[in-house]
């Protein structure tokens, strides 16, 4: 049964996602990270030898690498985390197959209702495993694959192995190594050539247990001339101890294909959110990241597009909202590795009540990528004197004939704006919320209507108690 968290237990702002579910689970690994835990995970999943070796090699890489000396402060004991919790014995094909207490959780989050109204398929992950999955029948008949990554390893081993770990190798960074060692769940999508998926596919990730780590692994392959929109959301209740979310997302967008990947991140304010996301876009393909970060204690996430062949396009639209005790170290990376490629980054950040937002971005033009075009726009809105915003833009150009633009602005809510709105009968909170909603409009208008409504509502929740 799901129970609301009492006020005395709360760390941050109250929101409707802050409830816990009493579940027993079918297996919980001992706390801590070591070879025994990894072998246990591999045994339970009955994995092939190459994947077990992949995990063990990744553990060595994680142990060998130092913590990054940049980004946010990570005060986390990696031996004080549960790395694997299996909530059910098998994945449900209907919601009736899902245990009542877990189904109730997703009912409260509105997932089954959204599925009926406007989604082409859903994956729902609870702790370490996907507990429910669906895909419209007509898409399955066209050859679309939408399953969890563990099932893909069993059912489509050759296809998975061809791409798994090729976009983001184990040794890419310390947290991709951690994910590679203990990954579980996540989404695997394959869209055959020429197939266009009209409605979004969605995955929802829920952490319920205390001191829990969630390490989903997502791989999306959009074949030539195909298109897909994938949406992910995530929440967790608040506890007095920190939890960890460290995902890896790899996307392959082949010639003339299109992929949009939308994230609405609303983790509880006690979670470290350390994620690696990267796409390779080939000839005349388009990759779009739409990235909204509202929750977590610390987020370090920089979605990337590597434009591999002429005509490829990468677009990244991100928003970061930080309040008391939060640091959103977010940003974007665009790498032009071929001529006549185009990239755009639009980054918006809002800081209030002492929150800190950072834009950390990279634009790189490799030798030979002539006639590339790239523009970066970073805007920061700071709502009070205690809050902070930083910008760390890196631009590396190794070709002469290119166009690169960078704009940045930092602003506060103007007294004239507030005076005007207050004189029209709005409260201070209503007025500042209206201004913030206008500030993030470029992101919200790119979302499907249902998600735009949810984003505006989340912003409204975050703004409660704010002063202009």
From TrEMBL:
Q: Where is the SUF system FeS cluster assembly SufBD N-terminal domain?
A: 49-202
Which superkingdom heads the taxonomic lineage of this protein's source?
A: Bacteria
Which Pfam family is one of those matched by this entry?
SufBD_N
Q: Which InterPro entries match?
A: Fe-S_cluster_assembly_SufBD (IPR055346), SUF_FeS_clus_asmbl_SufB (IPR010231), SUF_FeS_clus_asmbl_SufBD_core (IPR000825), SUF_FeS_clus_asmbl_SufBD_sf (IPR037284), SufBD_N (IPR045595)
Span of domain SUF system FeS cluster assembly SufBD core: 205-439
Set out the biological process GO terms recorded for this chain's protein: iron-sulfur cluster assembly
Q: Which PANTHER family match?
A: FES CLUSTER ASSEMBLY PROTEIN SUF (PTHR30508), UPF0051 PROTEIN ABCI8, CHLOROPLASTIC-RELATED (PTHR30508:SF1)
NCBIfam families (alphabetical): sufB
| Family according to the record | Belongs to the iron-sulfur cluster assembly SufBD family.
Task: Report the protein name in the record.
Answer: FeS cluster assembly protein SufB
């Amino acid at each position: 049964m799901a129970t609301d968290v009492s006020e005395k237990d709360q760390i941050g702002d109250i929101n409707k996602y802050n409830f816990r579910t009493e579940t027993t689970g079918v297996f919980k690994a001992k706390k801590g990270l070591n070879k025994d835990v990894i072998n246990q995970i591999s045994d339970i999943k009955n994995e092939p030898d190459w994947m077990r070796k992949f995990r063990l090699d990744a553990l060595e890489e994680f142990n060998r690498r130092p913590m990054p000396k940049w980004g946010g402060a990570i005060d986390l004991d990696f031996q004080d985390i549960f790395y694997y919790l299996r909530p059910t014995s098998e994945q449900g094909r209907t919601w009736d197959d899902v245990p009542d207490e877990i189904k109730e959780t997703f009912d409260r989050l509105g997932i089954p209702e959204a599925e009926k109204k406007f989604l082409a398929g859903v994956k729902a992950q609870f702790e370490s495993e996907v507990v429910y999955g669906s895909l419209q029948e007509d898409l399955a008949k066209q050859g679309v694959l939408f399953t969890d990554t563990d099932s893909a390893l069993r059912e489509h081993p050759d296809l998975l192995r061809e791409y798994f770990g090729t976009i983001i190798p184990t040794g890419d960074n310390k947290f991709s190594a951690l994910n590679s060692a203990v990954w579980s769940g996540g989404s695997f999508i394959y869209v055959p050539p020429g197939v266009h998926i009209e409605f979004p596919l969605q995955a929802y990730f829920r952490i319920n247990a205390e001191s829990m780590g969630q390490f989903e692994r997502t791989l999306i392959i959009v074949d030539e001339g195909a298109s897909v929109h994938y949406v992910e959301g995530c929440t967790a209740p608040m506890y007095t101890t920190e939890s960890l979310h460290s995902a890896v997302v790899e996307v392959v967008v082949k010639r003339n294909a299109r992929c949009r990947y939308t994230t609405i991140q609303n983790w509880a304010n006690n979670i470290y959110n350390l994620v690696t996301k990267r796409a390779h876009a080939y000839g005349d393909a388009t990759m779009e990241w739409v990235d909204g970060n509202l929750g977590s204690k610390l987020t370090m996430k920089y979605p990337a597009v590597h434009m591999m062949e002429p005509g490829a396009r990468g677009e990244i639209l991100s928003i970061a909202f930080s309040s008391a005790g939060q640091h959103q170290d977010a940003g974007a990376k665009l790498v032009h590795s071929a001529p006549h490629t185009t990239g755009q980054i639009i980054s918006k950040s809002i800081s209030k009540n002492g929150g800190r937002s950072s834009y950390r971005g990279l634009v790189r033009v490799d030798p030979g990528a002539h006639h590339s075009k790239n523009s970066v726009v970073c805007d920061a809105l700071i709502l009070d004197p205690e809050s902070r915003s930083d910008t760390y833009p890196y631009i590396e150009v190794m070709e002469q004939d290119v166009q690169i633009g960078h704009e940045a602005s930092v602003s506060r809510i103007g007294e004239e704006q507030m005076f005007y709105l207050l004189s029209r009968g709005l409260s201070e909170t209503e007025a500042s919320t209206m201004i913030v909603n206008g500030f993030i409009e470029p992101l919200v208008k790119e979302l499907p209507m249902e998600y735009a409504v949810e984003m505006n509502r989340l912003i409204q929740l975050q703004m409660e108690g704010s002063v202009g």
